[in-house]
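Standup notes, structure subgroup. Blocker cleared on the NAP input:
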Amino acid sequence: MSENEVALVTGASRGIGRVIALRLALDGYDVAVNFLSNQDGADEVTARIEEKGWKAMSYKADVADSEAVEKMVSDIGNDLGQIGVLVNNAGIYQRRTFSDLSLDDWQRTIDVNLTGCFNCAKAVVPEMLEREEGNIVNISSMLGFKGTSHGAHYAASKSAVIAFTKSLALELSPQGIRVNAVAPGAIETEIIAYDSPEQRRGRIETTPVRKVGQPEEIASVVSFLVSEESSYMTGETLHANGGYLMV
Ligand SMILES: NC(=O)c1ccc[n+]([C@@H]2O[C@H](COP(=O)([O-])OP(=O)(O)OC[C@H]3O[C@@H](n4cnc5c(N)ncnc54)[C@H](OP(=O)(O)O)[C@@H]3O)[C@@H](O)[C@H]2O)c1
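Run returned:
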């Protein structure tokens, strides 16, 4: 076990979580790389971090499964040490009109995107309270503010993540735990692979900065929120969407 602070990034086998994990390693954290099915992706992330002489390990757990999350957090404690930073990034998106949206779709999305944040916070907060320090960043979405015509379940889950963030911040900040959120707009990952080339072009043309965001542009915001640079911020949501929220 080393002296570095430990960061758990959920859903870090690809996409935004992968780049957050790499960024936090660069920032000096030992990183626990959580994944659900993509072991190779998670192992690639840990290998890239270890190549630099830093510390990382992969952990398979479905964030929607509270027992699996408890076990993962206990394993991380044994392998790397107590978690000082939790980034609740794991999330799923299915493009569905309301007519096509089933109760199962709804439930799984809420279970992963919202209950997943609850399960992970529930598992790490007791140790943070003991140490009277900790940092939690929840990844929401611009759609949690704007709504969307093809993902009521997703937008509802991401909006709830904001209320969860503010509530935890109110309760836990007096005890040294800051809780903030990031609400990304469209970011270049597999999650937006639903977009047709026309939709992608249309999205770029209507985004004030005229591009789709990159995972690095979210990782840098997370890096700021878990750092001392943001020490007077809690319960906040930082929007990173190229201005699209204003359109
Ligand atoms: N990309 C965007 O445009 C965008 C915009 C706004 C918000 N977001 C949010 O940003 C976060 C990351 O999105 P992304 O675009 O990077 O998605 P992505 O490329 O689809 O990656 C999703 C990640 O989450 C993991 N995951 C999914 N379900 C999980 C579960 N039940 N337990 C543990 N891990 C799970 C996946 O693991 P496996 O690979 O192992 O299955 C993968 O590592 C999500 O919360 C998403 O809602 C994304």
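Discussed briefly. Residues 10-17, 34-38, 41, 62-64, 89-93, 112, 139, 141, 184, 186-187, 189-192 surround NAP (CB under 6 Å).
Next: hand off to the docking folks.
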